[in-house]
Amino acid sequence: MWKASLANVRQAHRLGAGSRSIWKGSALAVPTIGRIIRPANTSTILRRSYHEDVVYGYRVPKEFEYPDYSPEQLRNRQQQAALVCLVNAYRTTGHRATDLDPLGIQKRQAIPELDPARYGLTDSDQIFDIDGILAVKAEDGSTKLSVAEIHQALTDLYCGHVAFEFEHIPDTAEKRWFADHVESTSASYKLDADKKRRFYELLARSEAFDNFMQKKFGQVKRYGLEGAESAIVALDELFSLCNHSGIAEAVVGMPHRGRLNILVDLLKYSPRALFHKLHGNAEFPSDLPASGDVISHIASSPKLNYGCSSDLHVTMLHNPSHLEAVNPVVAGYGRAKQMYLFDKNTDPGCALGDRLIGIQIHGDAAFTGQGVIMETLGLSNLPHFSLGGTVHIIINNQIGYTTPATNARSTLYTSDIAKLVNAPVIHVNGDYPEEVARAMRVAFEYRKMFRKDVIIDLITFRRWGHNELDEPSFTQPHMYKIIRARESVPKQYERRMQEEGIVTKDNASETRSAFTKYLDEELSASKDYVPQADHLKGKWAGLTMATEAVTTLDTGVPVETLREVGEKSVSVDPAFHVHSRLTKHHIQPRLKRLQDGPSVDWATAEALAFGTLLKEGFNIRLCGQDVGRGTFSQRHAMFVCQDTENVYIPLNSIGGPQGKLEVANSNLSELAVLGFEYGVSIQSPNILPIWEAQFGDFNNTAQVIIDTYISSGETKWLRQSGLVMLLPHGYDGAGPEHSSSRIERFLQLCNTPLDMAAESSQTQNPNMHVAIPTTPAQIFHLLRRQMQRNYRKPLVVAGPKTLLRLSAATSPLEDMAPGTSFKPVLSDSLADDPTKVKRVVFVSGKLYYDLAKAYTERKDEVASQIAIVRVEEVCPFPRLELTREMLRFPSATEFTWCQEETMNAGVYTFVQPRLQSILPKGAVLKYIGREPLAAPVTGISSVYKAEQAQIVNDALGGM
Q: Which residues pair with 507 in a beta bridge?
């Protein structure tokens, strides 16, 4: 038995545990990937690792032994080097000589390296012992074959209707496994009559469904599967393999092509529900606040069984029309579900990927063109993000809308981008359903062995245009001349089955007519169909759909508990050597503030919110770039030992039953990572998922997730999310970028009514909450409120930067005690006599402290007539709180909104009409702030300072 190189050991362990351990000694076997254990004592420091998965610790099993070449095999390889070169050529370049295009447009290539004569193997009858060179055998079971037999075997294996790319994988063990598996199992891969009949029925029903839809709903864009019907065989085979291997959950994301076909036939989606919607009706009960979505975005979550003792639960997630945006959501949903399964599973040997599989279906043009693909692949092997392997299926129509492959990518194959993570790729001709099933079996076995992503490039065609109302020959006349002249894939396979005697002509006719009759019956029944809602079930049972935003909720905690949690948040074993600066400037000051007061800072209040929620049994996932330390070195939720680099998260050792805090330092991605966290958020209401942007404007590159999921997911699909976005925001002279979180964009997405007059009957139930807290107590209550409410809503926090260490921005523990809560409006506390106030200045964010400082310094007659009111939660708009606050100032005649952002940014455009509607009759809201600007702010420091001073002066100036 051979032993792996040190590099292989490190790589395999990194995939499982994200370890940066320093391995000593070279006699280490390759470890298997990512097995899970639970530390008996959660305070025990886990494996030495910077990126430790703190939800569950990892251990490395004893070994993953891979048989080395025997002495005889080594002699074969040395003496028959020419044969080794030929075999390696087929394994490396054979895919370029395969018959992969169902349309025959892309021809087989002549690859010189595949000619035996190139290596001096000119005698076709010469016999070689291929043991240790090629994992095939002669008919009599021996390893002695002629050159002609070897050449034919290699051609059949690597140049047929299936092509394999795996030689780019850097790990030798993986490459050897892949070659041996393909070569040793291909000859034995035989389908029985029942399996072939199953495939035929799937294909026939698929075609019958699309024909029925064309006949009954010919003017509807249905994005049928025609031309790519083998995709339904691929999925069916995958589901069967999962069910028989003990996998309990499959999470699926796919775009629109073929979605309805797969939903109805494989995933048990009710045809009458579909037809009900196609007739223009809503898919949800009318009493629910849901706008619904188009048919190509609907979802299903059935239990399937392929003759096993337990079911396979398949969850196909809703998707938007932004093509591949669903992929990171699938990954996040699957990760959260997997953690839940580990909690339920008592088997300590249960490994990452044993109980759940991720399945992502892609379009060919999108796979190459959409950056979210690369970002999601980049997460696939990272701790805190890995699913233990995802199976990717590219439904390769060889065209994107009207764009041919030559214009759609700069690579040979659409799948080449997957080599980013060294994933093996299996190309297969969609005209051959049995070969598609064989390709899926190889992919599944690879994923099962190595717990890594694998790609199926299913090469098909699109019978109609991008949708059935298109005329594709406008732009692809040659391709569509071929398509319209050829027989469909189901008809081709039907003919083969008839030739083999598995299906008769009468059987075939009955299969199609029976399914068509069933669809007709469902269409008739759809007239009386009553929509059902599938939300708030399972883990979500007990929650409700909000009808009015709850902004005030007692989220206080006893002071003694706060002190206990605060002390635990910085407690480490004396043997664990924390950096001396952290001890002096973080740990000791926190302990002193907790005991002696008078108040605590922002990071402490956040830790108190985390810790108290953990004590109440909630799990928290804090994710983003550098979140463990915090961008501004303020958080330090994790400590790294200065001697060993072991990682320790104190809040996971509060004591007693508690939830887990997972600190997921992400890679440099926003789009995929935010999509991942959204997926986590919709899987369970008992996880508080928090994504923190390094700076607020980093959310710009995740806008698709914000638009199509976070802001609208509940409205479209009734899927609640408690995701929190922490976006550091505030002008501090840093220039155009990183100053603004573009909070105006979030507010534009909110559905709060414009008419906020006190007599208005309109209620507020916004799709998400947007807050700009200015005190530690406020962020404490905001975070706790997320989990204490009986519903979930996304929360956008325009968080602080300079306030993190501002001495004025602190809070006493009493502000977090029982009976306290988040305050959407913080009353003026500076005016000596509210009855004398003439001007009310409304403000949000850190600008308040600039105004308060100037106000205190001036304290003249003019200043005494000014009140400064903080709006801490902008959406839902605090109508009642602001109305009550204005009653404190009966003499006020001036009302201004003051902000440091430009007039076309910040919250002004949102608050102006709403605030104006509750002002006294005749009063007009005045704006104080920067003028409209294309950039968030100037990059010239002297101009910035002058503008900032002018804003303060205008707010507190003469009246």
A: none
Q: Is the distance from CB of 797 to CB of 730 less than 8 angstroms?
A: no
Rounded Cα distance, 758 and 739, in Å? 35
Q: Does residue 128 sit in helix, strand or coil?
A: strand
- The per-residue pLDDT for 959 is 59
| Tens digit of each residue's pLDDT (9 = 90 or more) over 623-667 | 999 999 999 999 999 999 999 999 999 999 999 999 999 999 999
Write the single-letter amino acid at 563. Answer: R
pLDDT at site 135: 93
Q: Does residue 809 sit within a domain?
A: yes
H-helix segments, 345-404:
364-369, 371-379
At 762 the pLDDT is 59
Q: Do the beta carbons of residue 721 and residue 681 sit within 8 Å?
A: yes
Could you tell me which of 803, 787, 784, 786 has the C-alpha nearest to residue 795?
786
Inter-CA distances, 213 with 278, 295, 469, 483, 521, Å: 10, 13, 13, 20, 14
- Is-cis flag, bond preceding 302, omega within 30? no
Q: Mean of the pLDDT values across residues 695-710?
A: 95
Helix (H) / strand (E) element for 677: namely helix 671-683
- The 3-state secondary structure of 914-940, one letter per residue: HHHCCCCCCCCEEEEEECCCCCCCCCC
CA 40, CA 470: separation in Å to the nearest integer?
62
Do the domain assignments include residue 366? yes
Residue type, 118: R
Residue 170 one-letter amino acid? P
Share of the chain above pLDDT 70, in %: 91
**Residue 70 to residue 851: CA distance in whole angstroms:** 80
CA–CA separation, 606 vs 589, rounded Å?
A: 15
Task: HSE, CB side, 13 Å, CA atoms: give it for residue 319.
Answer: 25
Asked whether residue 802 falls in the same domain as residue 830, the answer is: no
Residue 20 within any structural domain of the chain: no
Q: What is the DSSP string of 88-147?
A: HHHHHHGGGGS---TTS-SPPP--GGG-GGGGT---TT-EEE-TTT-----TTS-SEEEH
pTM, two decimals, is 0.92
The angle at the Cα of 110, spanning 104 to 113, to the nearest 5 degrees, equals 145
Residue 882 has pLDDT above 50, yes or no: yes
Same domain, 910 and 772: no
pLDDT digits (tens, 9 = 90+) for 211-259: 999 999 998 988 999 999 999 999 999 999 999 999 999 999 999 999 9
Cα distance between residue 923 and residue 890, in whole Å: 13
Cα torsion 395, 400, 406, 410: sign: negative
* Distance between CA atoms of residues 267 and 512, nearest Å: 19
Residue 398 lies in domain: 193-530
Rounded CA-CA distance 712/387 in Å is 26
What token pair was written down for 639?
A: 């400590």
Same domain, residue pair 242 and 157: no
**Single residue among 530, 547, 567 that ends a domain in this structure:** 530
Count Cβ atoms within 10 A of the Cβ of residue 577 and give its class: 0-12 exposed, 13-18 middle, 19 or more buried. middle
- Is 849 found in the same domain as 947? yes
pLDDT band at 4 (very low <50, low <70, confident <90, very high): very low
Least Cα distance to 385 among 346, 422, 334 occurs for 334
Average pLDDT, the chain: 90
Determine, yes or no, domain membership for 868. yes
- Domain co-membership, 203 together with 181: no
Residues 800 and 879 in one domain: no
The letter for the amino acid at 336 is A
For 424-484, strand residue ranges (E) read 425-429, 454-459
Across 523-544, average pLDDT: 93
pLDDT digits (tens, 9 = 90+) for 86-108: 999 999 999 999 999 999 998 88
- CA distances to 205, 258, 261, 490 from 265, in Å: 8, 11, 6, 15
CATH of the domain at 804: 3.40.50.12470
Instruction: Specify the number of domains making up the chain.
Output: 4
How far apart are the C-alpha atoms of 150 and 136, rounded to whole Å? 9
Say how many C-beta atoms besides its own lie within 10 A of residue 411's C-beta.
12
Mean pLDDT of all residues in 502-510: 93
